[in-house]
Amino acid sequence: MHYHLIGIGGTAMASLAGMLQAAGHRVTGSDQNVYPPMSTQLAALGIEYVEGYKAENTDPPRDVTVVGNTIMRGNPELEEVLNRKLLYRSQAETVREEFIRGKRSLVVAGTHGKTTTTSLAAWVCEVGGLDPTFLVGGVVQNFGQSFRVTKGEYFVIEGDEYDTAFFDKKPKFMSYLPEIAIINNIEYDHADIYKDLDVIKWQFSRLMNLVPGNGRLICGVDSPEVVDVLKSMEGKLYTTVETFGLSENAKWQARGIEFSEAGTSFTVYRAGEKWASFTTGMIGEFNIRNCLAVIIAADAWGIAREKIQEAFDTFKSVKRRMEVRGVERGVTVIDDFAHHPTAVDETLKALRQRYPSNRLIAVFEPRSRSSRLSIFEEKYKEAFAHADQVVIAAVFNPEDAKKFGPVLLDVNKLVADIAAKGKNVFTFADADEIVAHLTPEMRDGDVVAVMSNGGFGGIHDKLLDVLRD
Q: Are 86 and 106 contained in the same domain?
C-alpha cells in the first residue's frame, strides 16, 4: 500500500513512516521545519517528503493518508484531503491495526520518563530473547533508530497521553491494546488540550481499565496522583496490579540506592523480601523508578534477572535524554528534552549527582505548548534550584503560542523571581545571543545542560563550535 503522512517530521510520525516502509509499504509525506534527529532518520531511510503543506500534495494517488496530531483544520493539505473524500487515519490507529493487533503489547505511559522507560524495556526484551517490535518517541541508541519491526509476538510502545488527531481527541495510549501497562507518574501537562489535572487523571483511569485479566498494570506510587487514580478504580480493575517506587507503600521497592560518577546501584525488594540487586549507568532517582517498572514488566514476560542486568549493563540510553553532545576545552555540553518543570528539576538534580563539584549552567527554551504558557510559571521558579547559573530564552514563536492559551509565560518576571532567590540568571532572545553570552563565560569543568523539546537554533553545535575555535 501507499501511505502518505501529513506531518511526517514529528517524532511519532517519522517513526511510523519507517515502520511502514519496513513492513513493505510505500511511504511519502509532507511537513515543514523538520529537524534532527527525525530529519536524519528519514534521510537515512530514503523516505521522500515535501516541504510545506499544499493542496497539490494530494494529487499523487495513495491508499491511505495518515494525519499527524499537530495537523489541524485550516491546514491546506488536510482541507484538500477532506474535500476529495480521501481515506485518512490517525497515527495511533495505523500503528494498532498494522503492527499491534494480535501481539503482546507493553504500553509505557506517564507524564515523565516514557521515552527512556520504553527504550530500556525494548532493550531488555531484546537481550532477553523476545525479539520485540518497538516504537519509541526518541532515537534508541542501542538500535540507532526509534522503531523496529520484527516477526516476534512482542510489541513495546511509548503511550502518549496527548490526543490522537483532529478527528479523535482521546489519548494515543487508548489505541495500543496493552497486555502490560506501565504508568510511571501523573502530573498536569498539555494545558492546550486538558483543562485541569482531573481530566488527565480520568484519561489514565481509562488506560488502567483496558488492561486484561491475564496482563499486568504497573503503577508508580511515588506519584500521589497515580495513588489517587488507583483508589478511584478500586473494585473496578480486573487485572493484576503491581505497584513500585522508593516509598514503603510500594510492593516493588528500590532500597540501598548509591549514586556515583559511574552510575547507580540499588536493591529490589518485592513484598518486603529481597528480590535482586542491580546496577545501571543511568543517574537520578527518576531513572531508578524507570528501571523498577521495566524489571516488573520483564519478570512478567519471563525474562531472567541475569538478562535484565545484562541489558542494564549495555543500555546506551536515548538521544536527547541527558545526552552528552560533546566535550571541548573541558566544557561538557548536554542535550536534554526536558520542558515540564518537574522534568527540568529532575534532570538538573540528576546532573548535580553526576557532576557534584562542577559548575552547572542550565539553558532552557520555553518551546512546548504548555511551557510557553503561564500555567507553570510558579513551578519554574523552583525548577532550576540545582543549577549554578540559569539562562532562559524568549518564548518560542509567541504568536503561535497564543492559540493555546491567553496568557504567555512572562520570562522577564520569571528571571526576576529566580534572581530574587540569589540565583545567577539571564534571559536572551535566541540561541545566538545565548551563545554570545556564554562564550566568554564558559571555563574548564563547566557542564552546560541545554533543555528544549525542539531544535533550539542548533545551540548545541554552536556552543561546541565556539569552544573548539
A: no
Summarised one tens digit per residue, pLDDT across range 323-380 is 899 999 999 999 998 888 998 998 999 899 889 899 999 999 999 888 998 888 999 9
Name the β-bridge partners of 65. 4, 88
Residues 164 and 272 in one domain: yes
Q: Is residue 97 part of a domain?
A: no
Query: Of 44, 39, 213, 178, which Cα lies nearest the Cα of 100?
Result: 178
pTM for the whole structure: 0.86
Instruction: Report yes or no: 346 and 437 within 8 Å, Cβ to Cβ.
Output: no
Q: Is 265 helix (H, G, I), strand (E, B) or coil?
A: strand
CATH number, domain of 416, equals: 3.90.190.20
Taking the CA atoms of 241, 340, 38 and 29 in sequence, report the sign of the dihedral they define.
positive
Report the distance separating Cα 453 and Cα 131, nearest Å: 30
- What total number of domains does the chain contain? 3
Q: Are residues 111 and 145 in the same domain?
A: yes
Domain boundary residue, one of 66, 91, 116: 91
Short-list 371, 40, 12, CA closest to 160: 12
The residue from 269, 296, 314 where one domain ends is 314
- Count CA atoms closer than 13 A to 409's CA, side-chain side: 35
Residues in a beta bridge with 29 = 5, 49
231, 247, 119, 199: CA torsion to nearest 10: 30
